[in-house]
Design goal:
Length: 425
């Protein structure tokens, strides 16, 4: 069979050259479209359900949130197992699916179950799905370099400007903010004054909640003009909160300012983010969507950062603290360098020992063609170019070189012997 294949190739050289050229062109296209990352994604096929119920102890979270969710999320099709983790004010449910399950089909199944499980949870505990990324999806970390700016202002810029802009980049699943203070209005109640006015904390909460809304009225016409009636009641300052009446005692309204102090401050934090021991910082984590091209997403995010920088306050700029593209470029460049070095060395050795430039040319053609075909197979099996796959290609290049040298030398020797016999004959 091998003899017939060689004989056919020798008789139809143009066909062989056309097939090789076609494979090489297909391989170049595969190289340009292949997903590039630093490390292979070996994480489990999981959907995360996150529930926040701040102020509650881990035991209460376990009993009233985690346990009902875990028991209701079990039994779904293609689920391997369900894990639950409870901590102060938060619950995490990890639903692990079979490896071949489509991630978005899995998220739809989880959402269907959550619609039923919501009725089992206490008021204020609303489960949400985590981002459609994986454990290795954190491709870029950045902080805001804003000397002299308050941490609360930095966090406001991150949450209400930077985050929304970067989330629009194709391939980005989430921009997770960290650091700083999240602004909020805080009402600090004096228990002695509550007792004096015979009030309770739920009454104060109900009064504030009732006064912080907007309700619509009806439409009426006057002089052939239609008017829409509505009440505007959203609270916009600490003074408005202080003036909210809670009850009326002896024709005198008891306001929030009579029993509490109101201030704008930062939300309670469970930790801080420090960079290089130089102090706290505010920034975000770019989480890549499942199955995207890491190198392309990072490049698009950096381009978007340049656009966003134009709208930042004076003196504020981005500081990238982790960028996976460096490792990606080093991996790709390492394979390129290895390929070029081995092509030159192998060709030089063949040319020196055989003194035959056409034999050396065969090796120079064979190596890139073999690698191009390898990238065709990578795309066919949806394998990204990463440290593992590129290292495999680099190692296989050595085997290809050995094979090429042996085959070329063997063919050259047989041809030389045949020519010698023909001359003597």
């Amino acid at each position: 069979m091998i003899g017939k294949l060689i004989s056919f190739s020798l008789r139809n050289r143009m066909v062989v050259l056309l097939i090789a050229a076609g494979l090489f062109g297909w391989g170049l296209y595969s190289v340009s479209t292949n997903k590039v990352d630093a490390i292979p994604d070996l994480s489990e096929n999981q959907v995360i359900v996150f529930t926040e119920w701040m102020g509650r102890s881990p035991q209460i979270i376990e009993d009233q949130v985690t346990y009902p969710l875990v028991t209701n999320l079990q039994g779904m099709p293609q689920v391997k197992y369900v894990r639950g983790v409870s901590m102060f004010g938060m619950s995490f449910i990890y639903v692990i699916f079979e490896d071949k399950t489509d991630i978005y089909w899995a998220r739809e199944r989880v959402l269907e179950r959550l619609n039923y499980a919501n009725r089992l949870l206490p008021e204020g505990a609303v489960p949400t799905l985590g981002p459609d990324g994986t454990g290795v999806g954190h491709i870029l970390w950045y902080t805001l370099d804003a000397p002299g700016m308050d941490l609360g202002e930095q966090r406001a810029i991150q949450d209400w400007y930077v985050k929304f802009a970067l989330q629009n980049v194709e391939g980005v699943s989430e921009i997770a903010s960290f650091g700083g203070f999240q602004k909020q209005y805080q009402i600090t109640v004096d228990p002695n004054k509550l007792t004096y006015y015979n009030l309770s904390v739920p009454q104060v909460m109900a009064a504030v909640r009732a006064n912080n809304n907007e309700s619509g009225g009806r439409k009426f016409e006057m002089s052939d003009i239609g008017y829409i009636i509505k009440t505007t009641g959203y609270l916009k300052s600490t003074e408005e909160i202080e003036n909210i009446p809670i009850v009326t005692q002896n024709t005198i309204p008891v306001q929030v300012s009579d029993i509490a102090t109101v201030q704008m401050t930062g939300e309670s934090r469970l930790g801080i983010f420090d960079i290089n021991g130089e102090g706290e910082a505010v920034g975000g984590i770019v989480v890549m969507r499942y199955g995207e091209n890491a190198a392309e997403v990072i490049a698009n995010v950096k381009t978007k950062m340049e656009e966003v920088s134009a709208g930042l306050p004076k003196g504020v700029k981005f500081n990238i603290v982790y960028d996976r593209s460096g490792l990606i470029n080093e991996s790709v460049n390492s394979v390129k360098t290895t390929l070029i070095e081995e092509m030159l060395v192998a060709s030089a050795i063949v040319f020196i020992f055989l003194f035959h430039w056409r034999s050396a040319l065969i090796i120079i053609i064979q190596l890139p063609l073999s690698i191009a075909i390898g990238f065709i197979l990578l795309n066919a099996f949806d394998i990204s170019s990463n440290i593992m796959s590129l290292t495999g290609i680099a190692l296989s290049v050595g085997v290809i070189v050995d094979d090429a040298i042996v085959m070329v030398e063997n063919a050259y020797r047989h041809l030389a012997e045949a020519q010698t016999k023909e001359n003597h004959g």
